[in-house]
């Protein structure tokens, strides 16, 4: 494919539309990060056991929510990652 064909194809494609509306990102970041902090506090109050399955589940959930929350917060601030 040559340059002119690629340029014509590029100009004919629709603009990118995100799956999550940009207006929801601040609220989503707040909810996800609040849940992260809540789960981290809950994880620190759990009794220590020999097999930490419950601790691992809570910590993994908090980590995943925190990761998505930080990305939503960055996108809210205009740093699209």
UniProtKB/TrEMBL annotation:
Acyltransferase listed as a keyword: no
Subcellular compartments: Membrane
Ranges that cross the membrane: 20-44, 56-80
Record-linked InterPro entries: TMEM258/Ost5
Predominant location: membrane
Subunit structure: Component of the oligosaccharyltransferase (OST) complex.
Name assigned to this protein: Dolichyl-diphosphooligosaccharide-protein glycosyltransferase subunit OST5
């Amino acid at each position: 494919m040559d340059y002119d064909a690629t340029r014509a194809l590029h100009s004919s494609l629709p603009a990118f539309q995100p799956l999550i509306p940009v207006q929801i990102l601040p609220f989503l970041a707040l909810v996800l990060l609040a849940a992260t902090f809540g789960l981290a506090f809950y994880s620190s109050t759990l009794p220590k056991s020999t097999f930490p399955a419950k601790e691992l589940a809570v910590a993994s959930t908090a980590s995943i929510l925190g990761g998505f929350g930080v990305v939503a917060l960055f996108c809210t601030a205009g740093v699209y990652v």
